[in-house]
Give the backbone structure.
Amino acid sequence: MAERWRKPIVPLAIEPHEKEILVLPDGRSHRQAMLALEPEDMDRLRAGFACLKCLEPFEQAWPERCHVCGAPVRREQARYFANEMGAPLQIGPRTTLEEERAGLAERAAKEREREEQGNGS
């Protein structure tokens, strides 16, 4: 059985950032990515048990640098986490449960109306 710390961090969703652009050395630009992660994975990143840049898990928290991508984990990750990971990414509908319930009743009424019109012809 693999060690628990080796469990990979797999994003639930990846969405383009609404405002931030990443400009590459060759001049190409891309929207910065926003990741939706499991709460457990967010805790591992916050506690320094994984690299925020490449998501590589660490056996020991807060190494000097990530052994995969070289990111300065001990020096920069806490600040970067505070700046970049504050607002959670929403997955799914952008409506509340009450709005969904109201919409469900409305859609059911329209469906009944269409059926009645179809039967009355």
User: Anything to note?
Assistant: Strands lie at 13-23, 29-36. The chain has a mean pLDDT of 85. Residues 4-90 form one domain. The radius of gyration is 22 Å.
